């Protein structure tokens, strides 16, 4: 099991980062929030979870261990794979995930793309005892884009990485553009963008 990466960031996209470990470049899938928090050319420590399949080995990275633990816990629910679990972390974060499960709030959990109300209720039923044992508490991570257009690029890439089309991603960015004039936290903007899709349902 690969528990963490500590090296120089050589690349970062909407939902992935590449960390150089002494000449070995390791790519890890991540949430838009984690991607936005790292800086190219600087060292970073990421907490990771390795997902093993018959035809692939995929590493997922998170800014803090609580988020990683919630990502792994989410996958213990039937029908929840790493992609959905990653989307949960992108939309809710560790705190939001724990609160939704512990508070038995399917509506909040269903804010995640790919999760309907019935699926959310099933996940809560399966995880409510486990999440109390987890006791995860997530530290707030503030991420400030380095230029005015950075938030749009990061949010659009993140939405596309979660399965939305480029057109939908741009429409969501347009909808939250007024908010972005005062809000610099990419994670907050990402969640606001996802909320625009929920309002259209």
UniProtKB/TrEMBL annotation:
InterPro entries listed in its UniProt record: DNA_helicase_Holl-junc_RuvA_I, Hlx-hairpin-Hlx_DNA-bd_motif, NA-bd_OB-fold, RuvA, RuvA_2-like, RuvA_C, RuvA_C_sf
Region of interest (Domain III), residue spans: 151-201
Residue ranges occupied by any Helix-hairpin-helix DNA-binding motif class domain in the UniProt entry: 72-91, 107-126
Keyword Nucleotide-binding among UniProt keywords: yes
Keyword terms, alphabetized: ATP-binding, Cytoplasm, DNA damage, DNA recombination, DNA repair, DNA-binding, Helicase, Hydrolase, Nucleotide-binding
Residue ranges of the region described as Domain II: 64-141
UniProt keyword Nucleus present: no
Assembly with partners or alone: Homotetramer. Forms an RuvA(8)-RuvB(12)-Holliday junction (HJ) complex. HJ DNA is sandwiched between 2 RuvA tetramers; dsDNA enters through RuvA and exits via RuvB. An RuvB hexamer assembles on each DNA strand where it exits the tetramer. Each RuvB hexamer is contacted by two RuvA subunits (via domain III) on 2 adjacent RuvB subunits; this complex drives branch migration. In the full resolvosome a probable DNA-RuvA(4)-RuvB(12)-RuvC(2) complex forms which resolves the HJ.
UniProt protein name: Holliday junction branch migration complex subunit RuvA
């Amino acid at each position: 099991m690969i528990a963490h990466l500590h090296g120089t960031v050589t690349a970062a996209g909407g939902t992935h980062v590449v960390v150089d470990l002494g000449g070995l470049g390791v790519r890890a899938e991540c949430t838009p929030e984690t991607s936005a928090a790292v800086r190219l050319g600087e060292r970073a420590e990421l907490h990771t979870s390795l997902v093993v399949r018959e035809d692939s080995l995929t590493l997922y990275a998170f800014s803090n261990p609580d988020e990683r633990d919630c990502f792994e816990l989410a996958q213990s629910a039937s029908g929840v794979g790493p992609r959905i679990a990653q989307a949960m972390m992108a939309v809710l974060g560790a705190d939001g995930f724990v609160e939704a499960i512990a508070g038995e709030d399917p509506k909040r959990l269903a804010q995640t793309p790919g999760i309907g109300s019935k699926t959310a209720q099933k996940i809560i039923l399966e995880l409510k005892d486990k999440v109390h044992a987890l006791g995860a508490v997530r530290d707030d991570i503030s991420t400030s884009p380095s230029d005015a257009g950075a938030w749009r690029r990061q949010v659009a890439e993140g939405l596309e990485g979660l399965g939305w089309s480029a057109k939908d991603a741009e429409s969501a960015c347009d909808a939250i553009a007024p908010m972005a004039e005062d809000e610099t936290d990419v994670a907050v903007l990402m969640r606001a963008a996802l909320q625009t899709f929920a309002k259209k349902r």
